[in-house]
Protein: D-glycerate dehydrogenase
Amino acid sequence: MKVLITFRFFDEWVKKIVESGIEVIRWKEEKAPPKKWILDNVINVDGILCTLNTKIDKEVISAAKNLKVISTYSVGFDHIDVKEAKSRGIRVGYTPEVLTETTADLIFGLILAVARRIVEGDKLIREGKWMIPWQSDFLLGYDVYGKTLGIIGMGRIGKAVYRRAKGFNMRVVYTSRTKKDDIDAEFVSFEELLKQSDFVVITVDLNESTYHMINESTLRLMKKTAFLINASRGKVVDEKALVKALEEKWIAGAALDVFEEEPINKDHPLLRFSNVVLTPHIGSATFETRHKMAEIAVENLLRGLREEKLVYEL
Ligand code: DGY
Structure:
């Protein structure tokens, strides 16, 4: 059996694959492999281990004549043509659950950082601009405790954010495909959520119905004192509209871990705003979580090769 690993992956986990008697073709560079490399190498493989940086589209799937399983080292799967894979009987594995709490921690960190101007404060000190010991009107932000939090998409990560919000005595409103009975939060329409929330948190997948769901008309519904937080997928937000909203002060600020293009260009207008906190897609980036994700991704791959049930299958 032969597998293609399309990203720089931990040596110890590659070793585990090799020790199972499997031949590995491995991309080792930091940047994503070119499409040609994928197409040239995928022809005879039985499995693909990929992540967000590689599109496993119809062209790749059709080129892989022996493919049994695609295992992605991620919870998101918008980079894979799942429909095409499944129509050919190819299993698709992913890594939910293990990154839920870690991602919710980052989302809460973003809420606190942007509302309490933590990044601005740090920058100011480093630039030698903290001149007076304490001032009544210096670097004022907004309270988080007791405010209204709107969660778009009450899935695993939405619920983990909800649990954190309860510790901050927040009122939680949410939109979701279905009403949830296991949480004490108000199920409201998307419009109501935007109108009522002090913090709008996006936790939905990227698909045709969520592409640019935050756009000019939806941003206009938000309060002038509200913040937008996104750690799901960049393309859920129309960044041009967000820049306009920030320029014209329709909202108080934003905290973003994901972008329409990643890495975001250093000249992107979003980098000009001090009321915007930016992190480089690190929602699941802790030692513990990335290793748990690796364990599941490898297990999904090996089980798929053995034609067994995957740990998490799409
Ligand atoms: C995923 O796994 O899809 C995340 O975006 C990585 O943090």
